[in-house]
Amino acid sequence: MAPTLHADQVCWRPGGVPVLADVDLQLSAGEMLGLIGPNGAGKSSLLRILAGITRPDQGSVHLEGRDYRQLKPDAMAAKVGYLPQNPPLHWPLLVNRLLELGRLPYQGFFRRLSAQDTQAIAQAVATTGIEALLGRVVTSLSEGEKMLVLFARLLATEPTLVLADEPIAALDPHHQLLIMEKFQSLLTRQAHFAAVVVLHDLNLAARFCQRLVLLHQGRVVAEGTPAEVLNPANLQRYYGIQADIQTRDGTLQVMIRNRVKTHS
Amino acid sequence: MRRPGTPVLVLLLLLPVLLLLHSHTGSAHISVLTALQDLFHGRSSIASLIFVEVRLPRSLLAMSVGISLALSGAALQGLLRNPLASPGLLGVSQSAALMAVITLYYGFSNLAWFVLPMAALGGALLSVIVIFILAGRYSSILSVILLGIAINAMTGAFTSLALTFAPNPYALQEIYYWMLGSVANRSLNEFYFALPFMLLGWGLLLHSRRFLDAMTLGEDTAQSLGFDTARQKWLIIVGVACCTGAAVAVSGNIAFVGLVVPHLLRPLVQHEPGRLLWASALGGAVLLLLADITVQGISSGQELPLGVVTAALGGPFFLFLVYRNRHIYQ
After folding, report:
1. B173 touches chain A (CB under 8 A)
2. What is the 3-state secondary structure (H, E, C) of chain B?
3. CA distance B213 to chain A (A)
4. What is the pLDDT of residues A45-90, one digit of tens each?
5. I need a surface site. Which of B97, B156, B205, B231 has the fewest CB within 10 A?
6. What is the pLDDT of residues A191-226, one digit of tens each?
7. Residue A159: closest C-alpha in chain B
8. Does A14 touch chain B (CB under 8 A)?
9. Hey, is the C-beta of B223 within 8 angstroms of any chain A C-beta?
10. Distance (Å) from the C-alpha of residue A51 to the closest C-alpha of chain B?
11. Which residues in chain B show pLDDT less than 70?
């Protein structure tokens, strides 16, 4: 079976500045891939290309064996869900109306909700457990609640592939774990579901992702299981930190000790 | 809970009532019913003549200009996700005004009734073409606004120049009154002239409803929901240009409608940009009809320009609105 997502030799040079160079990436159904790397490594740029928002200058991206360039925008929007970094919420909408935006790819001009739309939204609400927030105004929510609502909006679209850019960066530890656990439960429950998540927290990346891709200066420099990617040599070379790696209860843990002073 | 469709329904019911009231208002006392009966039976009468030549064009223009300006404001505020946006932001209305002022300055406007509106519309379209060429298809909305500001400054300067060097006091007065905005003393010809452009603009803007809803989540998410944001953005800009260009062409600069109406109605549609389009269109028509009824009611002798009334009444009301809603926009 073709992989859910396949990026082949992706290059992106906006204004001649190389941001991504020859990036290959594969993702299978049921998999959560962690995209890690220092600031400016090109993680967000890569995610935007995987989401079809920007077109690569070279290379191609395939979704379930079909080239992005052949996919219709609505068909693609129904399959690929994208959550940007620091997602903006521009108007104080009611939570339930915000969730309905997730059904836009399925709706006509008058935006009437079909039975299927209502069912998908109810399912997304149940999965994220935001029943109590439904009558609230989105701008009055805390960061953690806001992220849960936006995650529910994403799920309301019923995508098979989710691309999330630092979805937990602004959250407290409780909400970080909560969101990551929601991701994990989706992967176990839905056979065709797959996700690429950009993460800065290496411990959470090691704990929740089956596979990690380490980007540095627009290139994939390491790829594999958390144990293969997160080793002291990689962390020193690409992150500029000295760290100890331990395994506790079967989970890899990164204990950061020092910043490497000569690292640029 | 109040249904979000209710305000639209109320405005929809209010519109025909105000249209009737507006066509009843004027210095001559005529019965609209008699005028309509005379028209229907093909009888020529003073009432039917006044109705067709004076009242009907004025009512239709007040309504369509109100729809165009408020709809443009609502769409731009949705596109920019900023409640400060108004149709004047793109420099479209200023460019239209400059071209109109030039025709008044040189007296071209006396050649035929269509010279002034045509020039104004040309000015509006020209400004959009300039913005399009300089900004490019994939430019950010910020560069579009900055270009609009520059165009506003330039056209404003030239308009002031025309006022300073007006060839005679009569031309100066003509330019001045035209710039203040009014729907008085227009014929059906002007309405028919503006209508196709307004209809095109209304169509483009109302069609952007789903896109504006998606833009609540930001440009990237809107794109990921299946919208070609670059294309949608330009469709809205062209729609705004058609609406405001046509409105300025036939009525001059009527201030504040495009800014205040969406503001006023936004809380009533739960801040949803898509629903705000319909509500604003109707609200703009209702507001301008009301303002024009007021103008005719309070004026004796020289009639107050409509643009003055919308700004003079809209200003304090806007202050109150901002004061009441200040906690929302943080």
Report:
1. no
2. CCCCCHHHHHHHHHHHHHHHHHHHCCCCCCCHHHHHHHHHCCCCCHHHHHHHHHHHHHHHHHHHHHHHHHHHHHHHHHHHCCCCCCHHHHCHHHHHHHHHHHHHHCCHHHCCCCHHHHHHHHHHHHHHHHHHHHHCCCCCHHHHHHHHHHHHHHHHHHHHHHHHCCCCHHHHHHHHHHHHCCCCCCCHHHHHHHHHHHHHHHHHHHHCHHHHHHHHHCHHHHHHCCCCHHHHHHHHHHHHHHHHHHHHHHHCCCCCHHHHHHHHHHHHHCCCHHHHHHHHHHHHHHHHHHHHHHHHHHCCCCCCCHHHHHHHHHHHHHHHHHHHCCCCCC
3. 7
4. 999 999 999 999 999 999 998 999 999 998 999 999 999 998 989 8
5. B231
6. 788 999 999 999 999 999 999 999 999 999 999 999
7. B225
8. no
9. yes
10. 7
11. 1-4, 137-138, 299-300, 328-330
Q: Does A82 touch chain B (CB under 8 A)?
A: yes
Strands (E) located in chain A: 5-12, 20-27, 32-36, 58-63, 66-67, 80-83, 161-165, 194-198, 211-216, 219-224, 241-248, 251-259
pTM as predicted: 0.91
Instruction: Please tell me which of the candidates A73, A93, A107 has its beta carbon nearest to residue B271.
Output: A93
Residue with tokens 């959470």: A204
A98 touches chain B (CB under 8 A): yes
pLDDT tens string A165-183 = 999 988 899 999 999 998 8
Shortest distance between the Cα of B25 and any Cα of chain A, in A, equals 37
Residue with tokens 């505020």: B77
